Amino acid sequence: MSGLNIEAAAKISAFVEDLYNAAQGGPPVDEEMLALRMLATANADADFDSSRITSPFATNGTDRVALDVKAADRFDEFADEMKRDLLPPQEQVGNGKVPKAPPVVIEDPIGVETGYDKAEALKNFGYLKDAHSVCQMFTNISLLQTNPGGFDITKEAAEAFNVQAKLAYNAMTGPMAGVYNFSQGVHTKFTFDIRKDEVHDKLLGTMFDGMRIDEAHKQEIDGRITAFTKGLQKIKVDGPKPTIDFALRFGLTPVTNITGDPQNQVLAYEPTTYLIYFTIDADSFRKCISKNNSEERIILNYEQVVTKFELNVDRFLKLRPKYDAMFAKATGMSLKAYGDKLNQSVKKKA
């Protein structure tokens, strides 16, 4: 994994500003000019006047029209990518696209069974869904900027998985820094000689170690992961890449009694996203997603980096009106409506 460089970050910020400007009914702006101004501000002296960097386009005539068309095309491609992520994986594969793993949100508080405010818990689950959607937005902006032609699913599926995973990681640690507080991830490698029908339990056990997720929730999550991987069965991952990468996001809300007194509870809700950057060797991946779920033994090689991201709710809510405007412009949906469709929700069965 590698983080964003300053040039890529400037391009993302410029696209976001252009999209927000369009959502407010303003005319399109030259994103290249915006990016150059951001780069100059980051590198120049404090008194540098970035307005000296101007657009090469005229403000009228054919150049203005060309800029309008260019901006409209970019926004259309972005909207298509955002809407595509809401489709079932089988449908995306059928359309020649490599799906991204959808985020999962546990809609039960972690650490308490009773005595909590259900309305408060629901608000926090919603914050996670919405924050995941904003992460998806930044991922797709980067994807279109770095790979504007997309990927050939028949030849470049492995590369597509790896690029999408890296960009999802970059979205969390770059544009969402400040909205999320996070520290260094925990990197672990695994090798198991196991029966194929034991793979799921082994993966779940290592992925969620230390997250306080109980068995009932793990089984529900397993169902969502299984549904996603079934959609990948028709994808061939042959090629030079020896490994396949995925970025898996799991949202949960630990609840802590900050008084320590069960008779006088004051509960603190801590919406948290765990990002699991998961790397599996191509041979293990092919065997894991094949339709044959037998007692055949396989060598399972994979590694993961688990990073804990704690949502800064106040910061997120301050930025939310801007996000809402951009989602309405690009997708025709509110941030909440998009988040409800994007995220896979799991709950304990009543």
UniProtKB/TrEMBL annotation:
This is Uncharacterized protein. It comes from Colletotrichum sublineola (Sorghum anthracnose fungus).
